[in-house]
UniProtKB/TrEMBL annotation:
It comes from Pseudonocardia dioxanivorans (strain ATCC 55486 / DSM 44775 / JCM 13855 / CB1190). Belongs to the FPG family. This is DNA-formamidopyrimidine glycosylase. InterPro entries: DNA_glyclase_Znf_dom_DNA_BS, FPG_cat, FPG_N, H2TH_FPG, Ribosomal_uS13-like_H2TH, Znf_DNA_glyclase/AP_lyase, Znf_FPG/IleRS. It is an enzyme of class 3 (hydrolase). Its EC number is 3.2.2.23. Residues 2-111 form the Formamidopyrimidine-DNA glycosylase catalytic domain. Its cofactor is Zn(2+). Keywords: DNA damage, DNA repair, DNA-binding, Glycosidase, Hydrolase, Lyase, Metal-binding, Multifunctional enzyme, Zinc, Zinc-finger. GO terms for biological process: base-excision repair. Coiled coil: none annotated. It catalyses: 2'-deoxyribonucleotide-(2'-deoxyribose 5'-phosphate)-2'-deoxyribonucleotide-DNA = a 3'-end 2'-deoxyribonucleotide-(2,3-dehydro-2,3-deoxyribose 5'-phosphate)-DNA + a 5'-end 5'-phospho-2'-deoxyribonucleoside-DNA + H(+); Hydrolysis of DNA containing ring-opened 7-methylguanine residues, releasing 2,6-diamino-4-hydroxy-5-(N-methyl)formamidopyrimidine.
């Protein structure tokens, strides 16, 4: 799933390549992807891209070329969605339901440059909104503060009193916006914190480590990602991971074996040597006992 660094890089890619270009046509290949109906997607035709922004893990393409009638095309890429930039595209409208293409935006001319929103797999969760104000998107209206905008004291205030495990809380977008499953694994590994640590019981030195890890991991990932083409971003993300999706491999820090725990529909990876004093965590699929 694209998280804060990848969405920031996609926004920068659009700022570099799409700004000042008019929309020639919008092709909707999957009606279910559109979560708003007024204004219609056709309202973008003739509008000029003026910018691109990120709200947590939401990507916004902005059309502020008509004062008082601003529009934003906002997408949440979810687990398997992606944005693909193209220099040319077929001028023939796509057939609905064929392949991964969900929505195509032609810029300058039909068949010219632009971008596609695609989604692989059978679980269709990609969401697209066309709104006048980003706060009209329910997920954006409920976002907590951005992970890279928090101070150390603000982070401490957010975590105070919470009894949730730290892994659960830092991926809750209503609490902190932008962090998903992969980067939360990396942040906790860097901070040497157990994923099962209780959020509101962290010691001051643990809060310091968590805050520094959050800033370091995300900032480094943004710096690696920005400037990469959209097609290269997934590989760039994988290359920077130390524990996430590395189950069974040696930890690059201490050499212990990276392990995995699953719960609900989510799994996460951690290093016992770095994070839990060498003790494997109980897998909730197998045991009700959680250390």
């Amino acid at each position: 799933m694209p998280e804060l660094p990848e969405v920031e890089a996609l926004a920068q890619h659009l700022r570099d390549h799409a700004v000042y270009r008019p929309v020639a046509r919008v092709d909707v290949a999957s009606m279910s992807v559109l979560k708003t109906f007024e204004p219609p997607a056709s309202a973008l035709v003739g509008r000029v891209v003026t910018g691109a922004s990120r709200y947590g893990k939401f990507l916004s393409v902005e059309f502020h070329d008509r004062p008082g009638d601003e529009l934003a095309l906002i997408t949440h890429l979810s687990r398997a969605g992606w944005l693909r930039w193209h220099a040319t595209a077929s001028a023939t409208p796509p057939k609905p339901g064929r392949g991964p293409l969900a929505l195509r935006v032609h810029l300058d001319t039909v068949g010219g440059p632009g971008f596609d929103l695609t989604e692989a797999g059978t679980q269709k969760r990609l969401a697209v909104y066309l709104v006048h104000d980003p706060q009209e998107v329910p997920g954006i209206a409920k976002l907590g503060p951005d992970a890279l905008a928090l101070s150390r004291d603000e982070l401490a205030e957010l975590l105070a009193g919470h009894t949730e495990r730290i892994k659960t809380l830092i991926v809750d977008q209503k609490t902190i916006a932008g962090i998903g499953n992969a980067y939360s694994d990396e942040i906790l590994h860097t901070a040497r914190l157990s994923p099962y640590a209780v959020s509101g019981r962290l010691r001051p030195e643990q809060l310091d480590a968590l805050y520094e890890a959050m800033r370091t991991v995300l900032t480094d990932a943004v710096e690696r990602s920005v400037g990469q083409g959209a097609a290269e971003l997934k590989g760039e993300k994988r290359s920077g991971l130390r524990v996430h999706a590395r189950t069974g491999l040696p930890c690059p820090v201490c050499g212990d074996t990276v392990r995995e725990v699953s719960f609900a529909e989510r799994s996460f990876q951690y290093c016992p040597g770095c994070q839990t004093g060498g003790k494997p965590l109980a897998d909730r699929r197998l045991s009700r006992l959680v250390r």
